[in-house]
């Protein structure tokens, strides 16, 4: 059983694929050459997932089920950004985390994120049933 206060940190250098500008699909879409919110959210989720590893049995993984995020500062290409997740509580089947992301200049985002433990095969089977429905 995981206990409140557990922390985990994951870091990455911002790559071209992580930039908001990489999401443009048409000529009229223009986004800045800074770390995108989706890429940052992924990093924050990875920190939470890392914190949960010891709670998983064989065949299980954790999945994100809820996020409230504020991305307040830009981070440039090639800059190191880190996300630190702190388990705040376990509520039924949900593991709630407070997450902060920072680059060398300071905090760039904060989030409250919930994860659940699921069976790896079952969740993929559920997704497949939805695809063919």
From TrEMBL:
Highest taxon, organism lineage: Bacteria
List of catalytic residues: 37, 45, 71
Pinpoint the Fluoroacetyl-CoA-specific thioesterase-like domain residues.
23-119
- What are the UniProt keywords, alphabetically? Hydrolase
- Species lineage, top-down? Bacteria, Pseudomonadati, Pseudomonadota, Betaproteobacteria, Burkholderiales
Protein name as annotated = Fluoroacetyl-CoA thioesterase
Could you say which EC number(s) this protein's record lists? 3.1.2.29
Sites where the protein binds CoA? 64
